[in-house]
Amino acid sequence: MFGSGYFREKTLALAGSMQALVWVDETATHGSLQDATGSIDANLALFLSQDPAETEQAIKQILDFQTGLRVLARLSSPLEAETQRQLGYLIQLVQVATQFSRNGQMMQRVGEELPRIASLENDRETRLQAIGELYEQTISTLETRIQVQGAQGYLRQPDIATNIRALLFLSIRFLLLWQQQGGKRIDFLLRRNSIAGQASDLLRSVTH
Question: How many domains does the chain have?
């Protein structure tokens, strides 16, 4: 009816998307990321992978998605402004991901570009810039566009703006996985307690 229930892999896919948006928010407001190096590398590897088995295995790694899980675990409580902003990005991106998934020509182009980006030197900044440029050439041309809030001094810097686009693309990658498992936009209205509860359970599983 309104999407299937929230189980481990589905919640982790949504956490991956939310986590990338936490990084978007942090980059837009502070100009850089704080202590996210390992997780970003793992997320980049997943974004560039075209092996379904590898993707399925990666999405099971709770340790890579704890930041996103912590945000989801708060959805059943009154939200602070920062979390509301990040959730707003997420809800908008669901529509973007849907438009992208229905554009076969664009999906084909992205699929053809991923091996090229993966072949670049194994440098996080180089790959983020390449993904951000691909986002601008593809996702940015869709009907729905995301307006990121932050410090204009950072948002006007080309490298930071490109990194933000790359992180938005990472978020979309996880949203596509989430949608494949039955995730729907209305879940954020009707299933917030279920999402929060499952996220809390997953967090507890790595602290005990």
Answer: 1
Q: How do residues 138-184 score in pLDDT, each as one tens digit?
A: 999 999 999 999 999 999 999 999 999 999 999 999 999 999 999 99
Q: Answer whether residue 1 is part of any domain.
A: no
Residue 3 lies in a domain: no
Name residue, tokens 């991956």. 16
What size, in residues, is the chain? 208
Over residues 2-58, the pLDDT tens digits come to 445 788 899 999 999 999 999 999 999 999 886 666 688 888 888 998 777 767 676
pTM > 0.90: yes
Residues 6+ apart with CB under 8 A from 87: 18, 71, 75, 79, 188
Q: How far is CA 17 from CA 45, 119, 171, in A?
A: 15, 24, 4
Domain that holds residue 95: 8-205
Is residue 62 in a domain? yes
Query: For residue 106, what is the enclosing H or E element?
Result: helix 104-118
8 Å CB contact between 175 and 184:
no
CATH of the domain at 154: 1.10.3890.10
Cα separation, 86 vs 90, whole angstroms: 6
If we measure between CA atoms, which residue out of 116, 154, 109, 115 comes closest to residue 136? Answer: 109
